[in-house]
Amino acid sequence: GENVEQHPSTLSVQEGDSAVIKCTYSDSASNYFPWYKQELGKGPQLIIDIRSNVGEKKNQRIAVTLNKTAKHFSLHITETQPEDSAVYFCAARASQGNEKLTFGTGTRLTIIP
Amino acid sequence: DAGVIQSPRHEVTEMGQEVTLRCKPISGHNSLFWYRQTMMRGLELLIYFNNNVPIDDSGMPEDRFSAKMPNASFSTLKIQPSEPRDSAVYFCASTLGAVGENIQYFGAGTRLSVL
Question: Is residue A36 within 8 Å of residue A46, measured between CB atoms?
Fold first, then answer.
């Protein structure tokens, strides 16, 4: 089955700096890659996603890049703010028609004021 | 819409007792997922349903766990008998289930403590 690895497990950045979280996946048939943000005491919420026919997607301060050849994708957060502090999860879906997502182990991001 | 609704938010029980977790998906969503989250194992998919039918239950730990979806607006996850190692946060998520629409919307979770 699909295996998703996520790094780093913890990340601290100064407010205003950029943060980058990286994930790799094992199944070359995977075609959908969402990123979720989980705040304390809440369920994960989708913040951005990308499909395998696109190399990059941006939404305001958040961007995701995908390298299909290397089977890795990354989340980039620019101009970080205190409210960006949370746990971030990457995920991969193995194939069209299969709704199962395999999640990475999470990155705890702390923004230092 | 109120989103995915889970109950109870917190459950404390003693080892050996039966535990039932409940989930109401977003109206109109056709797929429902049960996850377990622990520090050691992260976010694990236990089972998912499409149109009330279980599609993949390969993540269900053992026979003590069972899940049902009697109709499109309700699902339960039952643990009988419960054990301390079942202590975790259990999430329910739902999605439209249509081809190309994959966004999973999560509930707030049920924090289960088995003493």
Answer: yes
A11-58 per-position pLDDT tens digit = 999 999 999 999 999 998 898 999 999 999 999 999 999 988 888 999
Q: Are strands A56-59 and A72-77 parallel, antiparallel or unpaired?
A: unpaired
E strands, chain B, in order: 5-7, 10-13, 19-24, 31-38, 42-50, 53-56, 65-71, 74-79, 88-95, 105-106, 110-114
Is B103's CB within 8 Å of A32's CB? no
B interface with A, Cβ–Cβ < 8 A, is 4, 31, 33, 42-43, 45, 48, 50, 55-56, 91, 93, 95, 97, 99, 102-109
Average pLDDT, chain B: 93
| B6 Cα to chain A: minimum distance (Å) | 11
**pLDDT per residue over B65-80, tens digit each?**
999 999 999 999 999 9
Amino acid in the structure at residue A96 = Q
Q: What is the per-residue pLDDT for A98?
A: 74
**Which of A34, A45, A103 minimises the CB distance to B42?**
A103
